[in-house]
Specification:
Largest sheet: 2 strands, antiparallel
Helix content: over 70%
Distance between the termini: 44 Å
Strand order of the largest sheet: 1-2
Number of strands: 2
């Protein structure tokens, strides 16, 4: 047998140091999202709303980062963080949903990378459009499977490449912020402070940016996903906090300084990557080329990191018998190939779906964020559950993180909640397969209630799409 069944023959685990774990967190967070921030924020809010949004998002995500740090220390027996915490706190079925949702969000998020990179090249190759043409999807599909071949060679090798890429992609972002500050026009910044007429109330402005901030902070939990590879368990929490602190100021700066370069309404109409377009307005064509090259490096590195994370979640869930057995096979190089295949296939499917979306990039970005919210909410709620037996400070942090995540679900809106149900409900087939392989009854009475809610939500979502109440 070429692939080892990890239940009886575990492959050797690659041990990751604190710098490597931190780099993987930063590499996961610094991706396509940051290059799209100027346009996305300008479509929703002015400077005042952006400052409030970053304050809310920064505080909420920092609380989540502390939650993952605390859980890594207090429950060192739980691997693959997000999934394991949901299962330990709320049972196997919700744990399964957490694993599947986190995995699906990673796969959908990977699609945003290919859409954005094709949109970048589309500035000089019109046939690629905004990354959502047939040619763009074909070329993106080729890239999907080339990366599959690369990652199949081994986790250690892929992680080493990710370290190099992370350093390379941060440079253009820092240069952008410095140049934008130098060319910032105080009068333009002041005009953008309150927001354009289309932005609405300040509350709606802040609410409209919440999913975008979730997307750029995805990866803050990355170290906990790789906890089984860590040399020391405490490094998981440290990497989480270091990774968050390293990127927060950068993300906020990219957004805020852009308001001093162009009127908000003009930024909202830019093609993606909007960061390149903003810098072109400030310094000329070379700025756009410089950022575009940085974006390509950034996107490819982020895609690598997130593909690894997606496969890891399926693999660990299968090891715990919450996914079918075929997903817990790994090569001698510690690569869970069946999980990697499944991840690549889902990304391929979503790529095709973007052909039918009005705004392929924003749709994939928002859906990625929405799918992640349930796993985050369950992890934060689990921290509340165990926090009642610990220091009050930890409990307070967990409560804030839970309230923040619940607010994000509200901010996502009914559209993405329903679309998420459409994705979650059919996944139950995998849960049933795993239960039958173990000779167990598919559902307990409590789990049947959860199943009924998910199926009902999916049915409403399908009807809403069919009659045009919501659209992709």
């Amino acid at each position: 047998m070429s692939q080892a069944d990890t239940k009886t023959q575990a492959p050797p685990a690659a041990k990751l140091s604190l710098p490597t774990l931190t780099t993987m967190v930063v590499g996961s967070m610094v991706g396509a999202g940051v290059f799209s921030l100027p346009r996305r924020f300008a479509q929703e809010t002015g400077v005042a709303g952006a400052l409030i949004a970053w304050a809310v998002a920064g505080t909420g995500m920092l609380m989540l980062a502390f939650v993952f740090q605390t859980l890594a220390v207090r429950r060192p027996d739980l691997d693959a963080g997000v999934y394991a915490y949901a299962k330990a706190g709320f049972g196997e079925y919700l744990g399964f949903f957490s694993a599947f949702g986190y995995w699906a969000s990673a796969c959908v998020g990977n699609v945003t990378y290919w859409v954005l990179i094709m949109s970048t090249v589309g500035a000089i190759a019109p046939a690629l459009g905004d990354g959502d043409t047939v040619l763009a999807v074909v070329l993106s599909s080729v890239g999907l499977w080339l990366f599959f071949a690369l990652i199949s060679r081994g986790v250690k090798e892929a992680a080493a490449i990710n370290r190099i890429v992370t350093v390379a992609k941060v440079v253009p972002i820092i240069v952008f912020v410095i140049l934008a500050l130098f060319y910032l026009k105080p009068s333009v910044f002041a005009d953008n402070f309150g927001g354009a007429d289309y932005a609405g109330s300040l509350f709606n402005q802040v609410k409209g940016t919440m999913l975008a901030t979730v997307f750029v902070f995805l990866g803050v939990e990355g170290a906990s996903v790789y906890s089984r590879h860590a040399r020391r368990r405490e490094d998981v929490g440290r990497a989480t906090i270091l990774g968050f602190v390293s990127v927060f100021a950068t993300f906020a700066s990219v957004t805020i300084v852009s308001y001093g370069i162009m009127p908000m309404a003009e930024i909202a109409e830019l093609r993606q990557p909007s960061m390149a377009e903003v810098l072109e307005h400030a310094v000329g064509t070379w700025g756009k080329v410089f950022v575009s090259v940085g974006l390509i490096v950034s996107v490819l590195g982020a895609y690598l990191a997130w593909t690894l994370m997606a496969a890891e979640v399926l693999y660990v869930a299968a090891k715990d018998d919450d996914m079918p057995r075929f997903l817990k096979r790994a090569t001698a190089a510690d690569v869970p190939v069946p999980a990697l295949v499944m991840s690549t296939v889902l990304s391929q499917i979503v790529l095709v779906v973007t052909l039918f979306s009005d705004d392929a990039f924003n749709f994939a970005l928002d859906l990625t964020s929405a799918l992640t919210l349930i796993p985050f909410l369950l992890a934060a709620a689990f921290a509340v559950k165990i926090g009642r037996r610990g220091p009050r400070g930890q409990l307070a942090i967990a409560v804030i993180a839970t309230v923040y995540t619940a607010f994000l679900i509200y901010a996502a809106g009914l559209k993405f909640v329903l679309v998420s149900f459409i994705i979650y409900a059919p996944a139950t087939v995998l849960f049933v397969m795993a239960r039958r392989e173990q000779g167990r009854r598919p559902f307990s009475p409590r789990e049947l209630v959860i199943l009924a809610v998910s199926v009902a939500g999916a049915a409403v979502g399908v009807v809403a799409l069919a009659v045009g109440w919501i659209s992709l």
